[in-house]
Amino acid sequence: MKQVWTTVMFLILLVMVGCGTTEEGGDAILNQSPYNTWTDSIRMYPQRAQYYYERGKLFSQNNDSIHALTDLRKAISMTNLPDYALVLSSFWLQHEQPDSARNVLLPLVQNFPGNQLILRNLLMSYFDEGDYKNALVVNDHALSYDSASSGNWYNRARIKDALGDQASATHALERAYVLDSDNATIAYDLANRYAEAGNPATISLCNHIISAEPHNQKKPDPITIMGIYYENTGDKAKALACFDEAIAIDYTFLEAYLEKGILLYKQKNYTEALKVFELSTNIDNTFADGYFWMGRCQERQNQIQEARLNYERAIAFDKHFTEAREALAQLGK
Q1: What class, spelled out in words, does domain 255-333 have in CATH?
Q2: CATH for 108-180 (3.40.50.150, 3.30.1780.10, 3.40.50.2300, 1.25.40.10)
Q3: CB atoms closer than 10 angstroms to residue 234
Q4: Which of 189, 161, 157 is nearest to 172 (CA)?
Q5: Contact 108/115 with Cβ under 8 angstroms?
Q6: Is-contact 89 54, C-beta < 8 A?
Q7: pTM of the predicted model, to two decimals?
Q8: Looking at the predicted structure, is the pLDDT value of residue 295 above 50?
Q9: pLDDT mean across residues, the chain
Q10: Would you state the pLDDT for residue 60?
Q11: Which entry of 45, 61, 173, 229 is 20 to 30 Å from 262 by CA?
C-alpha cells in the first residue's frame, strides 16, 4: 500500500511540474525568504542555470519537492553539469525513483567517466531496485578509476552480500578497512562479519575500535559484537558477560538485550529470557523484536494467550515482520 501511495503522489507531482504552474513572481513562495534572493537574481539573469540550481537545492533541503524538482530540472536542461545531475539524481533516489535518477546520470557517464559521485549514485539506482548485476558493473567501472577508494570497496561488499557471495564480500570489506581503518561504519561491519563467522580476528578488531573511542564515551557496540563472537564459538559464559557489560555501558542499547535474551532462550532458560525481553520493551515500547521474543518464550511455557498478544504487538509495530506473522498463524496448532 505504501508503494502504491508513493507512486500516486509522484504522478501528481509530475503532472503539477509538467503543467508549468509556477512562473517567476507568480508563486508567492518564490518571493519569500530564503528563496527571494535567488528569485530576484533569476528575474535579472533568467539564462543563468546556477540560480535555478541554488534555489532548487534550498527547496530540496526544506522538503518542498514540487518547487525543488521544477528548479533542478530547469537548471539541468540549461547546463548539464555533474553537480546539477548529482543533486537531481539524489532527489530522485531519496524519493524512491531510481529509474528517474538513471535518466539523469547515464548521459553524463560518457563525458565524465571517472566521476566517482556520479558513479556512486548510478550504482545506488541499480542497487535500490535489486539489480545487483548492473550495480556490480558500475562498481567495476568505479574501481577501475579509483581502486584506493574505501567507499568503492565498501559498496562492492554490499553488492556481493546481496548476490550471496559471502567470501568476496568479506574480502572487499577487508580491503575497505585497510584503506580507511578509522571509518566506524566499515570497522563495525567487518567486526560483525567476523563475529558471525567465529573469526578470532573479531577480538583484536573490536579492541582497536574501543581504543579509538574517547575514554568518557565508551560504546556498547564493540562489546556486544565480542559477545556474539563468544556465543558463536561456544563460550556462552563470556558471551553473557559481554552482553551484561554492554547493557551496563548503555542501558538503552536494545541490541545487547536482544542478543542476551536469545542466548538464554537457546539455553531453554525461558523464564530469564522473558525477563530480558520485557526489559527491552520497557525501554522502547515499540520494539517489535522484543515483543516477538516475549511471545516465543511464552509459547514455550504454554502461555498461549500472552504469546498471541505479543505476536500481535510485534506485527503492529512492524507490519513486515514475517516471522511474527508465521508464529501467530501456527499458534495453538
Answers
A1: mainly alpha
A2: 1.25.40.10
A3: 9
A4: 157
A5: yes
A6: no
A7: 0.77
A8: yes
A9: 89
A10: 83
A11: 173
pLDDT attached to residue 26? 57
Q: Which three cell numbers stand for residue 61?
A: 533541503
Looking up cell 558471551 gives 239
Residue 195: closest CA among 183, 187, 203: 203
For the stretch 69-108, pLDDT in tens is 888 888 888 887 888 888 888 888 988 989 988 988 998 8
What single-letter amino acid sits at 315?
A: I
Task: Identify whether the C-beta of residue 222 lies closer than 8 Å to the C-beta of residue 189.
Answer: no
pLDDT of 4 above 50: no
In the 8-state DSSP scheme, what is residue 129?
T
Q: Are 310 and 295 in contact (CB under 8 A)?
A: yes
What is the chain's percent helix, strand, coil content, to nearest 5?
75, 0, 25
- From residue 228, alpha-carbon distances to 142, 202, 212, 220, 241 in Å are 34, 10, 21, 13, 11
